[in-house]
Amino acid sequence: MQSPLGSHKGLERVELESGLIAFRCPETGGHWIPAENYWRWHGTQPATEVEHEGVEAKDNTPVSEFDDTVKLCPESGTVMMRYRVGHGKPFRVDRSRTGGIWLDGGEWEALKAGNLHHSIHRIFTAPWQQAVRHQALDETLHAQLRERLGAELFARLMALRKELAAHPHREAALALLHGH
């Protein structure tokens, strides 16, 4: 199999985790994870849940120079689809129609650091991608409000919002803020 990046060198067999066999590009550090290898490994892992809500911290993982590059599947030679990871991760993961997954250099480590490596298959689902789009819209709205209101007032309002979210008299507090 050839790497979908760089000089398209041959991929080298590696073990990303105990029992997870992947293939590494010696030039870019990217990883190809065949679908059957991922599912075999995933079946041996404990069940984990990933929350869509409340992830606001930005990941400091640099986005790969190849994130926007069209990549061809090492197995089928077809164009792979890109999926945004979200959850504070700024990069995209590529998936082949074979079900295989391409991760650019450093992305496996970033997924693992965010405890998302057990849930890679969920990234490709409609609910996950919808949550990513909603998160991006929220971030845009917050940036616009921060600019309009000023950073200090915006921070105070966000703290108040968080406090009121679970307050038993939330509606009364909102009515007071509305002037009613």
Structure description:
With 180 residues, this protein is α+β, with helices and mostly antiparallel strands. The chain folds into 2 domains: 12-125, no CATH class; 131-178, no CATH class. The chain is 37% helix and 17% strand. The protein has 6 helices and 6 strands; from the N terminus they run E-E-E-H-E-E-E-H-H-H-H-H. A 6-stranded antiparallel beta sheet has the order 1-2-3-6-5-4. Helix 4 (126-149) packs across helix 5 (151-165). The chain is elongated. Mean pLDDT is 88; it is low at 52-56.
Low-pLDDT ranges: 52-56
Q: What is the overall silhouette?
A: elongated
Across the major sheet, the strand order is 1-2-3-6-5-4
In total, how many beta strands?
A: 6
Order of helices and strands: EEEHEEEHHHHH
Q: Main β-sheet, in a few words?
A: 6 strands, antiparallel
Q: Number of helical runs?
A: 6
The end-to-end distance, rounded to whole angstroms, is: 68 Å
Mean pLDDT: 88
The fraction of residues in strands falls at 15-25%
- Summarize the amount of helix as a percent range: 25-40%
Question: How many individual domains?
Answer: 2
Task: Report Rg.
Answer: 20 Å
Structural class by secondary-structure content: alpha+beta
Task: Give a concise summary.
The protein is elongated. The chain has helices at 35-42, 107-113, 120-123, 126-149, 151-165, 170-178; strands spanning 12-17, 20-24, 31-33, 81-86, 89-95, 101-103. 37% of the residues lie in helices and 17% in strands.
